[in-house]
Amino acid sequence: MKALILVGGYGTRLRPLTLSAPKPLVEFCNKPMLLHQVEALAQVGVKEIVLAVSYRAEQLEKELKAHEKKLGIKITMSHEEEPLGTAGPLALAKGILSADNEPFFVLNSDISCEFPFQEMLDFHKNHGKEGTIVVTKVEEPSKYGVVVYDDTGRIERFVEKPSVFVSNKINAGMYIFSPAILDRIELRPTSIEKEVFPFMANSGQLYAMELSGFWMDVGQPKDFLTGMCMYLTNQKQRSPERLYNGQGVHGNVLVHPSAKIGKNCRIGPNVVIGPDVVVEDGVCIKRSTILRGTTIKSHSWIESSIIGWRCQIGQWISFFFLVPTDPNRSCCLRFIFIVGDAHSNNSINDICLD
């Protein structure tokens, strides 16, 4: 089996992190976002994964080639000369995806969930049509484009931001297709959601499979942290042995074995600490991710923040809703700088670090 992962975007929603690394390589819960998906695909027998890329392809290829032998898969780069949207990449990789005449997976690169690939495959084979999309439930469907389908899963229509209730299920960014779909797509910038799916639904060729468990698009900072919390809760239920239970820990916390945590710290709830991180004495960290190589000096307070690679955080600093990323600058703030969720983006970085 084969799979195509859409990684061609610039990751602007996750800046400033993506100024240092392509979005698929940003660590989510101590593993590159893309690697969560690659490992899950390998577990269901996928042997070749095509990455639809247009940005920093060399960096992606270098990082992921190391995992090919370990996982027993082949990773192929499909280079876009121009951005091809969400359908054009399928046409560009048509020769690979149709080679064995088997169903293939397609997914967005910035989603976090339990990746029910085996269930998708079984569901798709059972209905025998061209396409299956995974859908997930949302609390406020009026903010989204929703999917309307019957009791068998056959999709009837798509409704954009409905003013009255018609469905509370949205596209979760994971698909499985039969090769016949490739005949519908031209090699040009195309939206699969707007230019392909409606026609498939009208001809009875598109089905929806409901996702059980957590799901989050982690492509922007506030959702990155929400997805992290969901992931840690899932780990507590599924693999509690992976979580850290050292002194001063409260709630779900994931700590890389190479990280060092000082005395009298309060860590958690909902914290991820990456490789080679040093947390000195008396530090409090809540609902945050600390990426590789960062040092947090004593008695600092970090909450609802993403701290980038190799940062130096000084003593007695308080961070709330921040995303510092520059390894060449030390943070020496001596006051609480609070920025709400709505402003948790790259525009705050220079303000906070000057």
Automatic annotation (TrEMBL):
GO terms for molecular function: GTP binding; mannose-1-phosphate guanylyltransferase (GTP) activity. Residues 2-231 form the Nucleotidyl transferase domain. Residues 250-317 form the Mannose-1-phosphate guanyltransferase C-terminal domain. GO terms for biological process: GDP-mannose biosynthetic process. InterPro entries: GMPPB_C (IPR056729), GMPPB_N (IPR045233), Mannose-1P_guanyltransferase (IPR050486), NTP_transferase_dom (IPR005835), Nucleotide-diphossugar_trans (IPR029044). Signal peptide: none annotated. The keyword GTP-binding applies. It holds the Pfam family GMPPB_C. Keywords: GTP-binding, Nucleotide-binding, Transferase. Its EC number is 2.7.7.13. Pathway: Nucleotide-sugar biosynthesis; GDP-alpha-D-mannose biosynthesis; GDP-alpha-D-mannose from alpha-D-mannose 1-phosphate (GTP route): step 1/1. Belongs to the transferase hexapeptide repeat family. This is mannose-1-phosphate guanylyltransferase. It comes from Stichopus japonicus. The lineage of its organism: Eukaryota, Metazoa, Echinodermata, Eleutherozoa, Echinozoa.
